[in-house]
């Protein structure tokens, strides 16, 4: 009887310990492994940044963005984290990027002084009002990312300030309609990324929920100034160095395809297809980008990059944004002087 009782107690203890282990694993899994990996990288990066002489924001952006040269290109690199309902890809990472998440991550690192404030800055840059949710994410560069970050005082569009040798403005306006409801209806179960394997029924239920939420959005007219390739190059393909010289160091360059017709494939047209940073090195302007062509983060001469774009039937020019704060912001990007 005693042995039976001891056996029962032993079994209870095993069950109890198993529950503790399961709970511990569950708690640990509350943070995506890629985020834990990034925390180490960010801690080391901030340590090195603190050891650098005080520099302006352009220099800070150059140093930070250079840390990720050679990192893998990965479309849809980020999601809302392991507890998200729709996209459980990591909320942040430093091992792989697409063009949008590369610019967003570098900017968030630059505007913060430590890893804690980086996380807060990332939320404010990547999501409307800093509220982390799939439907709050800045999915559309011209409509969401630009406008939300301009409103917060993080970036400023300077495209319309570019002038030719006759002191005449060269910018044109790209116009399209961003059809968010239709875009949401074109999402599939591939967009429902869950870390724990689930059946197709669960994915379909969550997809249906996401589409219902997306149907509440409205179509929005989107306008974006751009410097046309026809101004940046002459008929023979020779670069207009007078215009290129007006691009500031560490500017954000957006590749503009006015009213790019993607209605059948993604449900809406777009104005922007790509973005990255521009850095001057030895009098050469480089485009630092997470590149689908190269499969990694690379530096390519911007003039050469755009010269190849002359052959594209849809790429028509570039938009230029600059980062406004000249030093890291306190309190997780909440204390910034917003434009009037």
Automatic annotation (TrEMBL):
Question: Do you know which Gene3D superfamilies this protein is assigned to?
Answer: Helix hairpin bin, Putative xylanase like domain, putative xylanase like domain
SUPFAM superfamilies in the cross-refs: Cysteine proteinases
Q: Which residues form the signal peptide?
A: 1-29
Q: Which domain of life is it from?
A: Bacteria
The family database entries (InterPro entries) matched by this protein are listed as: AmiA-like (IPR010846), Papain-like_cys_pep_sf (IPR038765)
Question: Which keywords does this Swiss-Prot/TrEMBL entry list?
Answer: Signal
Q: Does the keyword Transcription regulation apply?
A: no
Tell me what this protein is called.
DUF1460 domain-containing protein
Naturally occurring in which organism (per UniProt): Legionella clemsonensis
